[in-house]
Amino acid sequence: MPARAAAVWAALDPLVAAGRPLRVLDVGGGSGTLAVPLARLGHDVTVVDPSADALATLTRRAQTAGVGERVHGVQGDGDQLHEVVPAGEDGGSWDLALCHSVLEVVDDPAATLRELARALRPGGTASVASANRAGAVLARAAAGHPVEALALLEDRDPAPRRAARPARRRFSPEDLLALVEGAGLQPGSWRGVSVVADLLDATSGAAPDAVRRLELALAESSPYRDVAAGLHLLATRP
Ligand SMILES: C[S@@+](CC[C@H](N)C(=O)[O-])C[C@H]1O[C@@H](n2cnc3c(N)ncnc32)[C@H](O)[C@@H]1O
Fold first, then answer.
1. Number of separate domains in the chain
2. Does 100 map to a domain?
3. 44 in a structural domain
4. Which domain range does residue 92 map to?
5. Domain CATH number, residue 41
6. How many whole angstroms from 202 Cα to the centroid of ligand 1?
7. What's the pLDDT tens digit per position in 115-138?
8. Number of neighbouring beta carbons within 10 Å of residue 14
9. pLDDT tens for residues 181-226?
């Protein structure tokens, strides 16, 4: 597990390492960065993603890892989930639904989270991760791009002339909590993802294990989590 994702896996661990196989829905799961490791832990994972290329890579990776029968790729959009994973009469049936690094690019983040919430069984858990606006501002500034950093701070497109498609959204913790609550989910506390790992380049010489331990120590407390590259929280469907 890369050091930058240490806090996410630590939060998921009590759920996914408990030994009980879960039905997992990975919205925008792409090529299986999360789906394949979860299938290796014994879970049954369905990835919904619009990208045929990503789904083809997902299938290859799952087969190579020997978990092809537990990973299912479905082509579809997060904000139209009900079209590809219909809910049962009594609501959803998934134990765990992931939405990681996807709210930045979907047409409608609120609709995506509402659809995801509907797909969960009562008591099921949503795992939501997004880019953090404050972290993006600092990262652009530290990379020598103060004009882009200011645009990000003011929620403007940092590169309007270059962009062939809309800029990726970034979120504040308050934005993310409001979206999660707006979808009818009960959020737990949020953590910062990659407080320092993304700032270290490969030549820093820092020992990966030490960076991982530092990430875990920084993830839950302010002011460190406030400037992380990403945000993550778990939320429950009542
Ligand atoms: C940055 S990747 C994240 C992949 C994975 N969730 C992870 O954390 O490694 C964003 C993914 O969102 C997918 N995506 C784009 N638009 C989407 C949509 N409308 N609904 C669901 N997924 C979408 C992309 O195809 C891509 O696989």
1. 1
2. yes
3. yes
4. 3-131+171-194+231-236
5. 3.40.50.150
6. 26
7. 999 999 999 999 999 999 999 999
8. 9
9. 999 999 999 999 999 998 887 678 889 899 999 999 999 999 999 9
